DNA sequence: TCAAGACGCTAATACGAATTATCAAGGCAG
DNA sequence: CTGCCTTGATAATTCGTATTAGCGTCTTGA
């Protein structure tokens, strides 16, 4: 149209004005005019092939991004991811094509599209260790939402500071008089018939619990939840004289609390229940649990932030971030039954 | 590694076994072995550049995909879109980078990434007419979720059959004795200071209402909602002796019903209220509205289906689909006050 | 004996832009 | 008149894959 070469169009299109690249103003205008009148847009694919990056952020989730269930645990993370991406002018690529093997999606498979994006955000309660190792080994830019143990090298992540939040909760409970505490959940134990290692988020909670408890000298137990019914758990807690139960899974807390009330027990009168985070499974309950809130939106947002720093050639500083959780007062923590300024 | 050419690797990688492409089994094995040991995966970008398609479906929304508000109207559409994409082995590209101009995202802008995907699904209550026209004109493969008027040509869509659903509701109301009906909503009137045309979904409802009513010969009114308070609307309905109000927007219905009950009126005793679809805005209410349900998940799913047929070279059949809405009995429809087998 | 396939693979090219080395023309000083 | 610099643009190359025409040799059938 304008009689100039493809190279010139490219230069004009990208507004190049370096010292060693000069375009006469009138030529530039002619080209711009033609671009405007035709609505020409450079093919993003060819562009990426040449430029090696394209402002696309991959999002990999081990479950569907848009779950059907009501207890929508991942949604807030994605809100944060989208908001940050929007501000950065990045598109999001959801790897919905990842095939499901053994009940979970796989990052790596023949024909994976990882390299279509500049980098990826990984989302899931627990990430497959082999896949993580490979991601690290291949040097693919990615950030995990949620803290991860090393996998052949440090894993970039933005996580929640479960140890601190759990410890703070322990101190609150001890502060109001509790002396017999229990941790209810998987903790750091393996799970299932294939004995998969516990997700970091669970182990972190138990670690925070254990550390805080060690400093206060109170009596504690750990009630693993694997394959146990709420009734079984409640019995175990009561038998042991536990007055404050710290439940890893919100839904377990709801089940135990509901059952206790059915039996005529008072929550928190007879038993305080502390929820170590938000519901990850749908948990129909009207109970206002005491505990803490996971900063999910911020985690998503900051994961994208960290990813962008990874993508910059300039040193990859602060690859791992832990965000603190907001305490929730709630209505399931109260001084234990026989505590009229009695203990200690 | 194997001493074969790049072309051979490509052929092996794609499992080509045509008559005119032959690879010796042992060569094939050698190459496969090398691929496996290195974990080599073809660059999806280069692949797309050569092949002209890449099993990526673009998703364009005029609002954030992951909204913060609770009344999450778009979510079910996206669930359907994701489920279909997953089954097809397609990835989803969310155009979060689209710049916001005049309060809404723009499909077209310099540097848009539309052509990165094979085709797009468009989501939004109303789509910008100029953009639609351009999409049609440029022949970009896309499907709208929600019926759209022609835009310089037929627009591919998967919509809800609002006329039929609304008409059915009218017949139900008339069937139980209502003779004075009102349509509460925008209908086909323009909106706002810039007088944007009404979205098709609103006009369709009013059309169904008008058509059904014409066949029954009852008395009706249309109460536009623009800038009017619930109190104003309620007054107008009562003054006119309306016994059944068909509300376009669920939230308006909730507001009117709430107000009516505050005033000591009975719903549906004194006034039946029919909701013409699901809440599009957060509407805190515990009222179980009579009306119908929009098949949102199916609409999303089928939009992807239609898109894939568009992408096939074989004739583009059934480009427009209307899905029927499921009636909801609810608790806000009852015979009008003075109807003891009296009328007609 | 000869033409026609079968066989297994590769060189060359296309895809659409970004980038770089290079070129021609003109101006200017010596 | 020569040599050098500036200006403005382009030809050629690159990115990594898919695709196709075509290579030489060996079989097969008539």
Mean pLDDT rating of chain A: 91
In one word, what is the shape of chain A? elongated
Order of helices and strands of chain A: HHHEHEEEEHEEHEHEHEHEEHEE
| Percent strand of chain A | 15-25%
Compute the separation of the termini of chain A in Å. 90 Å
Biggest chain-to-chain interface with counts:
A-B, 45 and 45 residues
Number of strands of chain A: 14
Q: Outline of this structure?
A:
The structure is a homodimer of 344-residue chains. Chain A is of the alpha/beta class and 344 residues long.
Draw up the topology in text:
The structure is a homodimer of 344-residue chains.
Chain A: H1 6-13, H2 25-38, H3 44-51, E1 56-61, H4 75-88, E2 91-94, E3 100-101, E4 104-105, E5 119-123, H5 129-138, E6 142-145, E7 157-160, H6 162-175, E8 180-184, H7 200-216, E9 219-223, H8 230-239, E10 244-247, H9 250-262, E11 272-275, E12 290-293, H10 296-311, E13 320-323, E14 326-328
Parallel strand pairs in A: 1-2, 1-5, 5-6, 6-7, 7-13, 8-9, 8-10, 10-11, 11-12
Antiparallel strand pairs in A: 3-4, 12-14
The structure holds a DNA duplex (30 and 30 nucleotides).
Pick out its properties.
10 helices; homodimer; 344 residues; six-stranded parallel beta sheet; 16% strand; DNA-binding; six-stranded mixed beta sheet; alpha/beta; 14 strands
Your description of this structure?
- The structure is a homodimer of 344-residue chains.
- Chain A is of the alpha/beta class.
- Chain A has helices at residues 6-13, 25-38, 44-51, 75-88, 129-138, 162-175, 200-216, 230-239, 250-262, 296-311, and strands spanning 56-61, 91-94, 100-101, 104-105, 119-123, 142-145, 157-160, 180-184, 219-223, 244-247, 272-275, 290-293, 320-323, 326-328.
- In chain A, the strands form three sheets. The first copy, chain A, has a six-stranded parallel β-sheet, with helices on one face. A six-stranded mixed β-sheet of chain A has the order 9-8-10-11-12-14, with helices on both faces.
- In chain A, helix 4 crosses helix 10 (296-311), helix 6 (162-175) packs parallel to helix 7 (200-216) and helix 8 (230-239) packs across helix 9 (250-262).
- The longest helix of chain A is centred in the middle third of the chain and has 17 residues, at 200-216.
- The radius of gyration of chain A is 26 Å and the shape is elongated.
- Chain A starts with 5 loop residues before the first helix and ends in a 16-residue tail after the last strand.
- The model of chain A has no long low-confidence stretch (mean pLDDT 91).
- At the A-B interface, helix 3, helix 4 and strand 2 of A face helix 3, helix 4 and strand 2 of B.
- The first copy, chain A, binds a DNA duplex (30 and 30 nucleotides) through residues 4-11, 13-14, 16, 20-24, 27, 42-43, 45-52.
């Amino acid at each position: 149209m304008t009689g100039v070469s493809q190279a010139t169009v490219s230069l004009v299109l990208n507004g190049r004005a370096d010292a060693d690249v000069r375009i006469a103003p009138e030529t530039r205008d002619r080209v711009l005019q033609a671009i405007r009148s035709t609505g020409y847009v450079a093919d993003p694919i060819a562009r990426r092939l040449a430029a090696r990056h394209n402002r696309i952020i991959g999002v990999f989730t081990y479950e569907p991004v848009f779950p059907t269930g009501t207890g929508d645990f991942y949604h807030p993370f994605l809100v944060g991811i989208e908001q940050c991406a929007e501000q950065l002018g990045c598109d999001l690529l959801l790897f919905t094509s990842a095939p499901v093997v053994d009940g979970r999606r796989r990052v790596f498979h023949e024909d994976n599209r990882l390299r279509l994006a500049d980098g990826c955000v990984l989302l899931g309660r627990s990430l497959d260790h082999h896949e993580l190792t490979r991601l690290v080994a291949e040097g693919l830019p990615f950030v995990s939402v949620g803290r991860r143990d090393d996998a052949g090298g440090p894993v970039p992540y933005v996580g929640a500071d479960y140890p601190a939040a759990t410890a703070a909760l322990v101190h609150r409970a001890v502060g109001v008089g509790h002396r017999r505490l229990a941790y209810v959940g998987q903790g750091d134990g393996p799970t299932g018939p294939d004995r998969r290692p516990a997700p970091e988020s669970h182990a972190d909670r138990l670690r925070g619990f254990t550390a805080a408890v060690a400093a206060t000298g109170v009596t504690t137990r750990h009630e693993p939840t694997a394959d146990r019914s709420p009734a079984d758990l409640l019995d175990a807690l009561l038998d042991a004289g536990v007055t404050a139960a710290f439940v890893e899974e919100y839904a377990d807390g709801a089940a135990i609390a509901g059952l206790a009330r059915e039996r005529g027990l008072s929550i928190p009168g007879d038993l305080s229940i502390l929820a170590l985070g938000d519901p990850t499974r749908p948990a129909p309950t009207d109970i206002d649990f005491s505990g803490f809130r996971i900063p999910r939106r911020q985690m998503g947002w900051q994961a994208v932030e960290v990813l962008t720093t990874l993508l910059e050639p300039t040193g990859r500083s602060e690859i791992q971030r832990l965000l603190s959780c907001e305490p929730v007062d709630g209505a399931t923590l109260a001084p234990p039954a026989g505590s009229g300024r009695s203990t200690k």
